[in-house]
């Protein structure tokens, strides 16, 4: 009797494991979407500059810094500044460089494991604050 029941039972165990792996993978993806959704909600609720608050050469780095993490707002502030501001070419170049870097940073998040997103976002923002925003401030105030 054992010979008759054991082989079919052993074949079912890997199938059950595969179902659990599929469920686990689906749960991880759902968790990732939930985490990104919560982050987006938190960013949407945070007080951020709007298009009505036009950035000037003196405050462009501050405006971009407050929009960090919200690609649409970051992009609209940068593009509006470059289109409308009476600033030097160097200032506008640094603003567009920051916008491009912001886009690349957030595209790279799509290929990183979910559990390190928060760490990587902190590192990205740290790099912007430490290197890019001071360069924008220098170029826009000279």
Structural summary, described in words:
The chain has 142 residues and is mainly α. The protein folds into two domains: 1-45; 49-142. Helix content is 77%, strand content 0%. The chain has five helices and no strands. It has helices at residues 2-45, 60-66, 71-84, 89-108, 117-141. Helix 2 packs antiparallel against helix 3 (71-84), helix 2 runs antiparallel to helix 5 (117-141) and helix 4 packs antiparallel against helix 5 (117-141). It is elongated. Mean pLDDT is 74; it is low at 47-52.
- Main sheet summary: none
Coarse morphology: elongated
Compute the CA-based radius of gyration: 24 Å
Continuous helix count: 5
Give the N-terminus to C-terminus distance in angstroms: 89 Å
- Helix coverage percent: over 70%
Class per helix and strand makeup: mainly alpha
Task: Give the low-pLDDT segments.
Answer: 47-52
Number of β-strand runs: 0
The share of residues in extended strands comes to under 5%
- Write down the domain tally: 2
Overall pLDDT metric: 74
Q: What is the H-and-E element order? A: HHHHH
């Amino acid at each position: 009797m054992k010979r008759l029941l054991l082989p079919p039972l052993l074949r079912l165990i890997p199938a059950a494991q595969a179902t659990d792996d599929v469920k686990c993978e689906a749960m991880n993806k759902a968790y990732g979407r939930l985490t990104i959704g919560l982050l987006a909600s938190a960013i949407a609720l945070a007080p951020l500059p709007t298009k009505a608050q036009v950035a000037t050469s003196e405050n462009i780095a501050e405006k971009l810094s407050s929009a960090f993490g919200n690609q649409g707002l970051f992009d609209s502030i940068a593009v509006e500044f470059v289109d409308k501001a009476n600033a030097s070419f160097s200032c506008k170049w640094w603003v567009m460089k920051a916008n491009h870097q912001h886009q690349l940073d957030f595209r790279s998040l799509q290929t990183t494991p979910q559990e390190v997103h928060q760490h990587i976002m902190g590192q990205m923002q740290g790099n912007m604050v430490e290197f890019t925003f001071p360069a924008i401030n220098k170029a826009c105030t000279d």
